[in-house]
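Dear support,

We are seeing what looks like truncated structure output for some complexes. This example has two components. We would appreciate it if you could run it in full and send us the complete token output so we can diff it against ours.
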Amino acid sequence: MSLPKASRTDLETPVRSASVGTARRRGIGLAVAVAVVATGVAVSLAVGSNPIPPARVWEVLVSPDGSFEAIVVQQHRLPRTLLLLVVGAALGVAGALMQSLTRNPLADPGLLGINAGASLAVVTAVAAAGAVGIAVYLWFAFAGAALAAIAVYLLGGSARTSPTPERLALAGVAISMTISSLVQTVILADQNAFNEFRYWVAGSVEGRGFDILLTVCWFIAAGLMLALALAPALNALALGETTGRALGVNVRRTRALAVVAITLLAGAATAAAGPIMFIGLGVPYLARSVCGPDQRWVLPFTMISAPAVVLAADVVARIVLAPAEVPVGVLAALMGGPVFVLIVRRRRIEAL
Amino acid sequence: MTATTPARSRWASLRVGHAALRLERRCLWIGTAGIAASLALAVAALLIGDYPLSPVQAMQALLGTGDDPLATFFVQRQRAPRMLAAWLVGAALAVSGSLFQSVSRNPLGSPDVIGFTTGAATGALVQIVVFDAGPVAVAIGALLGGAGTAALVYLLAWRNGLTGTRLVLVGIGVAVCLQAVNNLLVLRTSLGTAQSAASWLAGSFNATTWDETRLLALAMTALVPAALLLARPLGTLMLGDELAAGLGIRPDRVRTLVVVVSVALVSVATAAAGPIAFVALAAPQIARRLTGTASVGVGTAALTGGALVQASDLVAQRLFAPTQLAVGVVTGTLGGLYLIWLLTREWRRNTR
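Here is the complete output from our reference environment:
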């Protein structure tokens, strides 16, 4: 892995020039993440409630023959695996952006009101319109998430002033807590909405097919590209607003675009799989402890390692209580939490 | 609470001059307004209900000189303890939150961040879902869960001393795991049990009697002075550990005491009324914005929290009477909306 070269233009000034040790750590970390993702994809395709030998899985994957195995692999396992990849990448990168934007290691996309907004939209859709099923929730959840994010952004800043990190965090808390209270009001009053909500809120990819994947993947692809394009500007902003501006960063535009990217990524991921906790919070943390604070490394590393975590969680979720399935959101949190605590105890904390 | 305010304003006038004096006067003014609001809400809580009373009737009922046994019963046995408990719970949560926000130096700090609320919910859910327990056992389960989680987080975060950031991060890691357990417990039980768990988790004063209120008052007479004593070294700690140590403060000991006092405060509040959301987070922020100070502000936070929960409980009782809302839902909505309004106003003033 090559070192990021010293600045060609001011915009690309690295936050901290990487040492040889950092470069090696980044290289090893990236290799491990790629290996875990590849293994995860293979295992995710091979393991399930219908036992199919790995050789047969490969056979029906490359040449579908219309058999039962082919349908299981092609129609169920493949879209599910791909969706996990996409959702994991989206949640991880959204979390990294959110932490960089608010300069707060406690921030996750939920702080922008994404989960609360999506939840309110889902319970309202169930309680008021009797909506059932993920394909119907999808658009409600996405719209709710986007509206909440816009509200937080508007409250955090204004047309003339861009939101400062602290104000954005506080605005997010205020709006999320108001919306969550409304969600609670609805689910305490409407049993049907509560029942749908308790399954949705645990976070799951069970039964999601190609239709869901194809709906959300365009939003996520756009969000990922936007995020990567923003990395140098975010690096400059990490030096402080004044320094960032002096380095030629348009502070207001950078923050607005970061919020757009977070909304696209986390909104689409939450719409597709429900609020999967911890990925947006813990994986960027892991990424920073491996790569250092340079967002040009943190964002791609998160993009690869977050799907690895999600895939591993989902494989365990399928086998731990088989034939019953544990929602992937529950397992992601149960597996990620202890690892996160270990990292926090071991490493010195990277400032944002 | 009020006794410290004149002392601090005298100190400010001697040392800092006109600007600081005005700041402290504002503190005093807000404190007086907070007391007045609490008293007005207390009177309203005695008068309003399914059995409305005039001020004279209520006064007679309170003193036991009235000739209406029903009024005497309602006021003495139900409204008075409930009103008092609401104020005390609000004050306890707010003081705990303000201590936590100072020690973690993070506006998102609250007892929730070291997992107390999530742990309490886990304890209560285990009692409700697994053991089908009654209200007393549920409260005990919540206490054990909350305090146990806080102790675990504290021990895991201790490593050659205690930093606020590490405490918060370990707390988040543990809380994420427990939240997953909570989701799973709610998912794998019957809808009826899940819903009764959900309504306990929203908090309520419906069953409050003098027993809980007396216990609460007793605990707070010990804990609130302790919090007030801690506020000063905690303020010094904001200058940084080295400087604070130079000024004769032992940072780790202060932080440990703060955690112990805060957790004790939330524990008694949770035992009395269940986990009431958002007060610990919102009340200190509202108080800080009202007074316009950056100090710890234990007293003003207590008054704000008390008035907030009192008002919320009145709304919860009367808004859709005879249907009673969960008080936690109302604190979230009222506190959230008020925080939103304060942030908007602050922004307008800044851009003018």
